[in-house]
C-alpha cells in the first residue's frame, strides 16, 4: 500500500488508539489570534464549522473547515461528538496540496461522519506545536479531545481511506458516533464572547490581509495594558506572518542556502528561524538564533536576542521548548 515518502505514524491502521496523546490544552487561545483570509469556497467551510448539513449540488455534507487558533478549541470540543481530522500543511511543502485534496475527497465521501480541519502551519505555527508536528503534511485525528496520529508525508486516496476506516472504529469504540447534522443544534444559542475592541480591530485587519494595521492595534493595546499577554502574543504572531507573507518557495530555498554559507549573516539566520518556526521546526529555529548570539556581539547580538524572545511568544512562553531555549540563551549570554 505504501508509496515513496508515505509514513504511517506508529498509531496508524490497526494500531490506532487514544493512548500516549499530547495535551492539546498547551495551545493557548489568545483573545484575538491571527486568522487567514477566508478561502474562496468559504461558504461550505463556514457551514461545516457551524454544523450546517446543507450543501448544494452533489448532496454531500460540507465537512471541511480551516483550522485557526480562534476555532481550535471549538474543533477539539466537537471531537467529543464527531472525529475531527486535522491535516497540517504548508505552502513550502510541495506534497501538501495533493494530500489536502485527497483527504478532503475521502472525508466528504463519509457524509458528515467526520470533519476535516485544514491547518496552515505557516499562518498558525502554534497548531503545529499543539500536535508536536515534525514535518508537513501531517494528519492527526482528534477523538474526545485526544489526538490520534495518522500519517506523515504523501498519501493517496486509498491509503487515507484505510486509515479513516480504522479511525471510525476507534471513534465508535469510544462512543463518538455523531455526524455534522447531529451536532448542529448543540450550542445554537451560545453567544461568542466579544473581543476587546483593539483585539477585534486586529483580527479584522488580519482577515483583510493588512498585517501592519493588525500590528498597530496590538501595539496600542499594549500601550493601554502593558500586561496584556494576548496582545503581546498576537503582535509577535502577526509580525511573523508579515515577514513571511511575500516569501516564495524559491526565495526561501535561497535564504536557507545563504544562511548555510554565511553563519554570521544576521538577516539570513533570522529569516531561516522564521521559516523553521512557521514549519513547526521550533527547536531548530531556537538553536539557530542562540548559536548566532553565542558567536556575535554588539547590536546584532541584541537584535537576535529580541527576535528570539518574540518567537518565544509565537510558540507560547509555557512551552517546554521555550523553557529549554531560555536555558540555552542564558548560557551564551552569561
Summarize the helices and strands and which ones pair or pack.
Layout: E1 7-8, H1 42-49, E2 64-67, H2 72-78, E3 84-89, H3 96-108, E4 115-120, H4 125-130, E5 138-143, E6 146-152, H5 157-173, H6 180-184, H7 197-207, H8 211-224, H9 229-244, H10 249-261, H11 266-278, H12 282-295, H13 299-315, H14 320-333
Helix pairs in contact: 3-5, 7-8, 8-9, 9-13, 10-11, 11-12, 11-13, 12-13, 12-14
How would you sum up this structure, described in words?
There is one protein chain. With 334 residues, the chain is α/β, with parallel strands linked by helices. The chain folds into two domains: 7-184, Glutaredoxin; 197-333, no CATH class. The protein has helices at 42-49, 72-78, 96-108, 125-130, 157-173, 180-184, 197-207, 211-224, 229-244, 249-261, 266-278, 282-295, 299-315, 320-333, and strands spanning 7-8, 64-67, 84-89, 115-120, 138-143, 146-152. It has a six-stranded mixed sheet with strand order 1-6-5-3-4-2, with helices on both faces. Strand 3, helix 3 (96-108) and strand 4 form a beta-alpha-beta unit. The longest helix has 17 residues, at 157-173. It starts with 6 loop residues before the first strand and ends with a helix.
What percent of the residues sit in helical stretches (DSSP H or I)? 40-55%
Strand order of the largest sheet: 1-6-5-3-4-2
Distance between the termini: 53 Å
SSE series: EHEHEHEHEEHHHHHHHHHH
CATH superfamily of the largest domain: Glutaredoxin
| Shape label | globular
Amino acid at each position: 500500500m505504501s508509496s515513496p515518502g508515505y509514513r504511517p505514524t506508529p498509531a496508524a491502521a490497526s494500531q490506532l488508539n487514544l493512548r500516549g496523546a499530547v495535551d492539546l490544552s498547551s495551545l493557548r487561545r489568545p483573545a484575538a489570534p491571527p486568522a487567514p483570509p477566508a478561502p474562496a469556497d468559504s461558504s461550505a467551510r463556514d457551514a461545516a464549522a457551524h454544523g450546517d448539513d446543507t450543501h448544494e449540488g452533489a448532496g454531500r455534507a460540507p465537512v471541511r473547515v480551516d483550522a485557526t487558533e480562534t476555532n481550535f478549541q471549538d474543533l477539539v470540543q466537537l471531537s467529543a461528538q464527531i472525529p475531527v481530522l486535522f491535516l497540517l500543511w504548508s505552502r513550502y511543502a510541495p506534497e501538501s496540496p495533493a494530500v489536502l485534496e485527497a483527504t478532503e475527497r475521502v472525508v466528504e465521501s463519509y457524509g458528515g461522519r467526520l470533519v476535516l480541519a485544514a491547518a496552515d502551519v505557516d499562518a498558525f505555527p502554534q497548531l503545529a506545536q499543539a500536535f508536536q508536528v515534525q514535518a508537513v503534511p501531517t494528519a492527526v485525528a482528534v477523538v474526545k479531545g485526544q489526538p490520534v496520529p495518522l500519517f506523515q508525508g504523501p498519501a493517496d486516496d486509498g491509503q487515507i481511506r484505510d486509515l479513516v476506516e480504522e479511525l471510525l472504529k476507534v471513534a465508535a469504540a469510544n462512543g463518538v458516533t455523531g455526524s455534522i447534522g447531529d451536532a448542529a443544534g448543540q450550542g445554537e444559542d451560545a453567544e461568542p464572547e466579544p473581543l476587546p475592541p483593539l483585539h477585534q480591530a486586529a483580527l479584522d485587519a488580519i482577515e483583510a490581509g493588512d498585517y501592519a494595521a493588525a500590528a498597530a492595534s496590538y501595539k496600542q493595546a499594549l500601550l493601554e495594558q502593558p500586561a496584556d499577554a494576548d496582545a503581546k502574543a498576537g503582535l509577535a504572531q502577526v509580525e511573523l506572518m508579515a515577514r513571511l507573507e511575500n516569501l516564495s518557495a524559491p526565495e526561501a530555498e535561497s535564504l536557507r542556502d545563504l544562511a548555510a554559507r554565511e553563519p554570521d549573516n544576521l538577516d539570513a539566520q533570522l529569516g531561516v528561524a522564521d521559516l523553521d518556526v512557521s514549519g513547526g521546526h521550533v527547536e531548530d529555529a531556537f538553536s539557530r538564533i542562540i548559536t548566532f548570539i553565542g558567536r556575535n556581539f554588539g547590536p546584532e547580538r541584541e537584535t537576535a536576542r529580541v527576535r528570539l524572545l518574540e518567537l518565544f511568544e509565537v510558540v507560547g512562553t509555557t512551552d517546554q521548548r521555550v523553557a529549554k531555549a531560555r536555558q540555552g540563551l542564558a548560557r551564551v549570554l552569561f
